[in-house]
Design brief:
Layout lengths: L3 E6 L6 H11 L4 E6 L11 H12 L5 E5 L4 H7 L4 E6 L2 H17 L4 E6 L9 H9 L10 H13 L2
Parallel strand pairs: 1-2, 1-4, 2-3, 4-5
């Protein structure tokens, strides 16, 4: 039986921190479904389709990564994919409380799917999509924070919105 994990997120946009978790997770799981979810509490800069396209572009060298989107409960998506695990990245202790709540609720919904937390590489522990967007908005250098394709997409977005 295949060892499948789902790595969910809004990925608006994907950063090197996200990629760190996806790449390292791809060495542990046979298949990782990167699931782009629409977080109703956030106002995204990129459409879901744009985010999926960017993730596919920057993960095309990882053969066991599949990028999809889903409307609905993450646990339902995980069951559809026959996933045994949900892979989540942690940057700092401050992430833990929120992640513990989500994990506890997922366990109530389906206790057969485990959540695996992976600490991000220390060099990305401060990194968030929100920070990247703020820096890009004011034309700051984000080349060490996101892949080149994402940097170009961000620059284009902010030029279009002027």
């Amino acid at each position: 039986m295949e060892n499948i994990a789902v790595c969910p997120g809004s990925f608006d946009p994907i950063t090197y921190g996200h990629l760190d978790i996806i790449k390292r997770g791809s060495k542990v799981f046979d298949t990782i479904y990167v699931c782009v979810l629409n977080n109703s509490s956030k106002q995204p800069l990129f459409t879901v389709k744009e985010r999926c396209n960017l993730i596919q572009e920057v993960t095309n060298d990882i053969p066991n990564v599949v990028v999809e989107t889903y409307q609905g409960l993450l646990i339902d998506y995980a069951n559809e994919k026959k996933a045994k695990a949900i892979l989540r990245g942690l940057r700092a202790v401050s992430d833990f409380e929120y992640e513990m709540q989500i994990t506890s609720m997922n366990r109530v919904l389906d206790d057969k799917i485990e959540t695996f937390f992976m600490m991000t590489n220390n060099q990305y522990s401060f990194l968030s999509s929100s920070i990247v967007k703020e820096i890009a908005k004011y034309k700051g250098d984000i080349s060490e924070l996101v892949p080149e394709a994402v940097e170009k997409a961000l620059n284009k977005k902010f030029i279009e919105n002027i």
